[in-house]
Amino acid sequence: MKYKKLGNSDLIxxxxxxxxxxxxxxxxxxxxxxxxxxETRKIIKSALDLGxxxxxxxxxxxxxxxxEYVGKALRDFAKREDYVIxxxxxxxxxxxxEKNISGQKHIENYIDNSLKNLGLDYVDLYIYHMWDYxxxxxxxxxxxxxxxxxxxxxxxxxxxxxxxxxxxxxxFARANGMTEFVSMxxxxxxxAREEERxxxxxxxxxxxxxxxxxxxxxxxxxxxxxxxxxxxxxxxYAKFKYDKTAEIDQLIIDRVTELSKKYNVSMTEISLAWxxxxxxxxxxxxxxxxxxxxxxxxxxxxxxxEDISYLEELYLPHSLVVVMAQNGKQKGGNVV
Length: 336
Prior knowledge:
The chain is of the alpha/beta class. The protein has helices at about 35-50, 65-75, 95-100, 105-120, 135-150, 165-175, 200-205, 230-235, 235-240, 245-265, 265-275, 290-295, 305-310, and strands at about 5, 10-15, 15-20, 55, 85-90, 125-130, 155-160, 180-185, 210, 285, 320-325, 330-335. The strands form 3 sheets. It has an 8-stranded parallel beta sheet with strand order 9-8-7-6-5-4-3-10, with helices on one face. Strands 1-2 form a two-stranded antiparallel ribbon.
């Protein structure tokens, strides 16, 4: 495993971030394909043994049970200083707005609930999960600055926003002596490259770490044509993101398959090796032990410039998938 500094923070993270959306009680959350606590512990133990020290979860993942499973496993298997854990908060709900609960109080309540779920005194990275169009950015940045000052978070990151929003937030923080975002978690992989237009150049110019989610496109970049899985069949949000462009995307996936055979490695290794030439640490989920080994092997796989060009050349612009919040719940939308 290799390690990198997370943007302008003092956090040192593994080149692979373990995405924890697949962990949690399948009976209580929005996904039926997640794994139980026993299987979660096996995967986290394997990840730690293979050098992964960066874990990403959220309270909306299976109604907080992802945080509970992940927190307990990390407490049992590792010293606190040996891992970096990220969790998130979503926008204020309609009910909170009607009760005049401020953005600052909303963030305070959210972090306290996550710390309770995780069984921790602080998180390393606290992520603004999606842009809140009903709360002034001044309240958001002040609330985040307060939790950093209080020691409940070491650094802050952002996810699912436009480049102009990230710039606005960080420049406001900079002008007012507040904590700035050090990482950006956007939707980025070989078949979804719209972040290359503005977000990635902006982050590179500001030394903001890129930690993209959907690194394997919900499993599409890890499976040959006609292969399937429970997640591919049942993940409605991934279907929303990828089904409309499946025919175009398959041409690129076929090239991933071709290179995997050329190098005698898995499709996961090819897809992630490409992504690792672009970003700090992709967020990669796993629901099987074998998947952990594949993501770790990708760190040492070196693609040639010709390989990279071959994987990239067939890409055509896609509609931009934007994650928004409606009534406090996650919702997807397309921007053409």
